[in-house]
Amino acid sequence: MNLQITGHHLDVTPALRDYVQGKLGRISNHFDHVIDIKVTLSVEKLVQKVEATLHVPGNDLHVECSDENMYSAIDMLTDKLDRQVLKHKEKRGDHHQANGAVKHQAAE
Q1: Distant-in-sequence, close-in-space partners of 8: CB < 8 Å, separation ≥ 6
Q2: For the chain, which terminus, N or C, has the lower number of CB atoms within 10 Å?
Q3: Are 10 and 41 a contacting pair, CB within 8 Å?
Q4: 67 and 76 in contact (C-beta within 8 Å)?
Q5: pTM higher than the cut 0.85
Q6: 27-83 tens-digit pLDDT
Q7: Where is 64: in which H helix or E strand?
Q8: CA-closest candidate to residue 31, choices 98, 81, 95
Q9: Which sequence spans correspond to the domains of the chain?
C-alpha cells in the first residue's frame, strides 16, 4: 500500500504523518487489495480539512471531512473510509450460492 500525504497551506509534521499512517493501517486490516492512498491535509481559515482517495481494483473511493481540530477530522475520515471499504468489499464478494442449484445437490 502506497501512502502519499500532502499539505495544502500546512506543513505536514512527523506527528501528523505518523497519526495518519496509524489510522489508515486499520483499512489494510479489512481489505488487503489497496493499491494506494492519497491524503491531502488543508487549512481554510479556522476549518481543518482532510481528503483521501483510496485506489482499489475496480474502483476509487473518495472521502473528505472537516473539523476545527485536525486530529478529529482524521478520525472521522478513517471512520467514513472504513465504512466505504467494507461496503465495497461486500459488493465485490462472490454472489454465487454454493450448492444452491438443484443439479449441484447430492441425489438421495
Answers
A1: 40, 41, 42, 43
A2: C
A3: yes
A4: yes
A5: no
A6: 777 677 778 889 999 998 889 999 999 888 888 889 999 999 999 999 999 999 989
A7: strand 59-67
A8: 81
A9: 2-87
Contact of 20 with 39, CB cutoff 8 Å: yes
Decide if 47 contacts 99 (C-beta within 8 A): no
The DSSP symbol for 104 reads: G
The residue behind cell 493499491 is 35
Question: Alpha-carbon distance 2 to 42, whole Å?
Answer: 20
CA atoms within 13 A on the CB side of 89: 14
**Exposed, middle or buried by CB within 10 Å (0-12, 13-18, 19+), for 63?**
buried
CA–CA separation, 3 vs 20, rounded Å?
A: 10
Q: Which three cell numbers stand for residue 52?
A: 483521501
